[in-house]
Specification:
single chain, alpha+beta, 5 helices, two-stranded antiparallel sheet, 16% strand, 4-stranded antiparallel sheet, PX Domain
Amino acid sequence: MKGSPSHSNGASPTHWQQNGGKALLSITISDPEKHGSSSSLTNAFVDFKIETRTELPQFCAKEFFVRRRYRDFVWLRQRLCTAFPGAIVPPLPEPDSLLKDDRFSSAFIQRRQAGLQLFLRRVAAHSALARGADLQTFLEAKVWELQTAKNANSSSWLTRLGLGLGLSGRSLNLALSLTLTLTLAHQRALGYGGVAQLRDEHDHRDLPAQG
């Protein structure tokens, strides 16, 4: 249902710097949702609703939300570390351990949500990180747009790696093509690139309701 983001499930918003008493960037994590079967360790995952309210001019709207899973946060942190090598990028909560905990239990999901909220709170409190293009992509891009950004970053990284290994010309292109093909195949095997994963209802950029 379209409308203004709401701070449900007791989630506390993350605020960026204040401007005359008004938050420039407010981010809330809530509404964890499980996808797939817990009996399938490769296909099942949990994602979260990321709601944003902002006065920063680079965003397309003032209020919107998307859904993100843990690997999306991993991508964001890696990109922030690359884009801001002199900054201290906050850590993410520890990845799940199948030996120590049930990653689909309510207790684990609540701990992960709290850890991800703390991560975004610290990112949003950093004046440089909060204005980064990768954070904007993470907060407002549709699923396919985010995946396109990930693929572009992978291609750039692989190019640098290939050049470092002395590859060039046709050899480099073949290596890049093979690696990206295998990456996409792996993502499809995990259910990441399927049509069901691209469901628009899980990745809205809705304008706030009028009135």
